[in-house]
Amino acid sequence: MIEVKNLIKTFEGRGQVVRAVDDVSTQVAKGEVVVIIGPSGSGKSTFLRCLNGLEEFNDGQVIIDGIDLTESKTNLNAVRREVGMVFQHFNLFPHKTVLENVTLAQRVVRQRKPAEANERAMKLLTKVGIAEKANEYPSRLSGGQQQRVAIARALAMDPKVMLFDEPTSALDPEMVGEVLDVMKQLAREGMTMAVVTHEMGFAREVADRVMFMDAGRILEDAPPARFFTAPKEPRAQAFLKQVL
Amino acid sequence: MILLVLAVGLWFATQRIHYEWRWERVPQYFAYRAEVSQDTPVAGRVSAITPEGRSNRIEITPEGGGQPVTVTVEQAQVKVGDAVAENDTVGVNFQWRVGPLTQGLWVTIWISFVSGFIGLAIGLVTGLCRISKNPTLRGLAIIYIELIRGTPLLVQIFIFYFFIGTVLNLDRIVAGVGALALFVGAYTAEIIRAGIQSIAKGQTEAARSLGMSATQTMIYIVLPQAFKRVLPPLAGQFISLIKDSSLVSVIAITDLTKSGREIITSSFATFEIWFTVALLYLLVTAVLSQLLFWLERRFARSD
Ligand SMILES: Nc1ncnc2c1ncn2[C@@H]1O[C@H](COP(=O)(O)OP(=O)(O)OP(=O)(O)O)[C@@H](O)[C@H]1O
Ligand SMILES: [Mg+2]
Questions:
Q1: Average pLDDT estimate for B41-67
Q2: Out of A30, B196, B283, B297, which residue is the most buried by the measure of CB atoms under 10 Å away?
Q3: 3-state secondary structure of A175
Q4: Residue A226 CA to chain centroid, in angstroms?
Q5: Which domain holds residue B49?
């Protein structure tokens, strides 16, 4: 479903060149849940953002469901609608109601009729448990509720892949669970997911594979049982000691 | 209290220069009753005048005899038995006419609104060019903005009227509106640019990651939020535009200011007219700012 070959992304700032993603190759199969962990600044977000072309990368290949992002005739917008993304800070549209947040892209991108878009939106809002807030503005919702709306908004496009960038990091502890529950349900339903998170419990329970990133490289890639009990890399061991 | 002191001070000041206030002269410049003369279609003799409500029926028997002709007027200027020639005035009707102040006010309002809307469109386009990736567009936008902001509006109006207006053979109204529109356009562009840039990057990223194109993102996500945010500075800009529009009177457009000047030359009620003109500007700007305030509150619903 996702194929990454020799991906390189550098940032230039104040004369320094930062290799945020440094020659990464990996693949994610259909229905697989991959959790990416690593210290701050290790390039997890940048890697994830390269996967839907939000970040233009310098070299390498990203192939989503058989479509190569780097090929010049590829329509990035067409690829992005197949790849849902959930952000750390929700990024809901504040000038639209919850329902409009979920229907807007269905209407303008998928060209669905309002009735059809509304029906799909209400189904998803019910699924994430906030149908009763459909006509509220996002500012009236708690962080956990906003993040669940953001997930519904991404799902409304019927994506083939979902990317999560620290979806629970900006939440108060008591709201983390409600968002993780939604994500767990998605994983059970067979969604292909790439999740950057610090929630080790989630990784252990849901992930098929855990990747450990440091300094733009994937240093370890293993099933959670192996990764959490016997990490091979010394840097992964040090990181785990810190967070567990 | 302060207002009272000011009023008393003003009264003493005008006493000292022996100014005679003639406020009663002002209303006629808003609207007045004009006399419209009524003529007889035939030559003959007035045979009868019968009052009929507020008007009078004048009957004129034609010279050669025949059916009497009737003319209805509000005020008769002939008596029974008078001889009248064809097209002689036999009386007058009264009609309400708008005075020069009202006309000037109207010109000021519509010139401001038309140039304001054109300016908004120019500002939107220029603002978008200003942040575009294309260096040519960006450069042109910067040059335009700097040219306009670096020169006085009065000079721009003169250049627009005497140079561009002459070359392109423009009407003075078009030249005036054009100069004002270009002027607000430059300021609006900067306001809109700042507004767009103030919208968090995450909004664009969220929209793009849903598959929306750059244009769709601009239209549905960024501009509506930016517009809400720039409404207060835009309102300020349009209120100054109404005041700045008084400068077009220099190219002989009869706006509120020019009307005021013209009335003064004939009425000598200098102080009264200028106070009235100021009050009218104040009225328009106050109504506009109330309107925009209301709009702002409506937009604030989602906060
Ligand atoms: N827009 C940018 N311009 C310049 N450098 C950037 C930019 N975005 C990220 N970087 C740099 O790239 C590196 C990787 O950043 P990234 O945000 O991907 O890390 P991360 O693993 O997501 O960290 P965190 O856990 O703090 O979110 C960092 O050194 C960061 O400073
Ligand atoms: Mg990050």
A1: 84
A2: B196
A3: helix
A4: 23
A5: 40-94
Instruction: Say whether both B48 and B177 belong to one domain.
Output: no
Give B301's contacts in chain A (Cβ within 8 Å): 137
Chain segment B227-275, per-residue pLDDT in tens: 989 999 999 999 999 999 999 998 988 899 999 999 888 888 888 899 9
Ligand 1 within 6 A of CB of A46:
yes
Q: Is the pLDDT of residue B145 over 80?
A: yes
Residues B209 and B62 in one domain: no
Q: Which residue of A has its CA nearest to B298?
A: A95
Of B59, B94, B129, which marks where a domain is finished? B94
Instruction: Examine the domain organization and report whether B84 and B211 are in the same domain.
Output: no
Chain A neighbors of B225, CB-CB under 8 A: 93-95
pTM, 2 dp = 0.83
Query: Dihedrals φ, ψ of A241, to 5°?
Result: -60, -35
User: Is there a domain that residue B32 lies in?
Assistant: no
Contacts of residue B128, defined as CB under 8 A and 6 or more positions apart, other chains included, come to B192, B196, B218
B216 contacts in A (CB within 8 Å)? 108-109
Residues B107 and B61 in one domain: no
Distance in Å, alpha carbon of B216 to nearest chain A alpha carbon: 8
- Report pLDDT for A80: 92
A197 ligand 1 Cβ < 6 A: no
